[in-house]
Automatic annotation (TrEMBL):
Residues 58-347 form the Bacterial type II secretion system protein E domain. Transmembrane segments: none annotated. Belongs to the GSP E family. This is TadA family conjugal transfer-associated ATPase. It comes from Streptomyces gossypii.
Amino acid sequence: MEEPVAGGALLDAVRVRLAETGAEPTPARVAAALRSQGRLLGDSAVLRVVEALRSELVGTGPLEPLLADPAVTDVLVTSPEEVWVDRGGGLERTRVRFTDAAAVRRLAQRLATSAGRRLDDARPWVDARLPDGTRLHAVLPPVAVGCTALSLRVVRPRAFGLAELMAAGTVPPGGDRLLRAMLDARLSFLVSGGTGSGKSTLLSSLLGLVGPQERIVLAEDSSELRPDHPHVVRLEARPANQEGVGRVGLRDLVRQALRMRPDRLVVGEVRGSEVTDLLIALNTGHEGGCCTLHANAAADVPARLEALAATAGLDRAALHSQLAAALDVIVHLVRDRAGCRRIAEIHVLERDGEGLVATVPAARWSADGFVAQRGRQRLERLCARGGVRG
Ligand SMILES: Nc1ncnc2c1ncn2[C@@H]1O[C@H](COP(=O)(O)OP(=O)(O)O)[C@@H](O)[C@H]1O
Ligand SMILES: [Mg+2]
């Protein structure tokens, strides 16, 4: 006969009991705690309670099997009955369930604690990196209506090699030659695309092409780039502590990185005033640097950078003059309807009569290889001469 399974209320009672004594949920202790609740359960039911409680205390609890799947990139919890994953082909709902909304909250809080951060009513959201590199985002109710909203983004420690990106169709046949030429010529480049279009992944792979004698210094809001390269220094921003001090922003990191003798200055994702520091660096002897930027089209990049530079007080004309001399190439990624990520276009930059920078397509993705566009000659000239400006 199937033994009764301990319900949410009973689990809670056991939890409270164990929390009072600060004890680990061993079978003997759980059985004792159950007895104290006037419940006698058989061995297997006790063990199930032990398992349920253990998985709350260690790891990611019920999400563990999802995160263990190497294909899973994102795990999203919207309610105790709604757990979603992305295995690379868009979101899918899973069968994983939490006992109740309180269990989701407890997991989020425990994960935040393991990242050395606080998550409570006074600070109802957290954006942090777990010790294994997984990125955690959580918002507690009532800000998240109904249930704690939990998002985990898995960082796979291994970078995709260029060959794998070609096999996946991200880089078209023969496209690796162009990318290698860009890297060899130490062109400064920006990888653009929408959220999840594979910008960071491509940037990481491209950094694997950097010569082994070069020193790469990474500045990131949340460390995720793992280039396959022998000489990488990784810097990560951090929020203010509970007293509101000690914040280290991306801008601080870029400034420090410049003093660390980088051959390649890399800003994981430009999303604020640090853009001005990066452009200045690229203009003052730090060519070969690179970054990613959220933009829906390569042609939108100058306007996006303008908006970011404005937050640092840099006006339009100044931004465009910096940009023209700082950046050589834009590599734009898209994620098509089937969920495949690919390099849609490669653009170069051109200044018009008024000194404003516009992007010019140089190559377009096709199943047979990159198709040359108007800016192709300029791109080839840049590759041949090595990051020549103007
Ligand atoms: N070319 C690709 N083919 C298959 N999966 C990819 C590819 N590029 C990225 N991914 C996966 O998609 C997810 C999002 O990629 P990421 O590089 O973080 O995107 P972005 O930086 O644009 O937000 C990652 O988990 C990554 O493993
Ligand atoms: Mg990214």
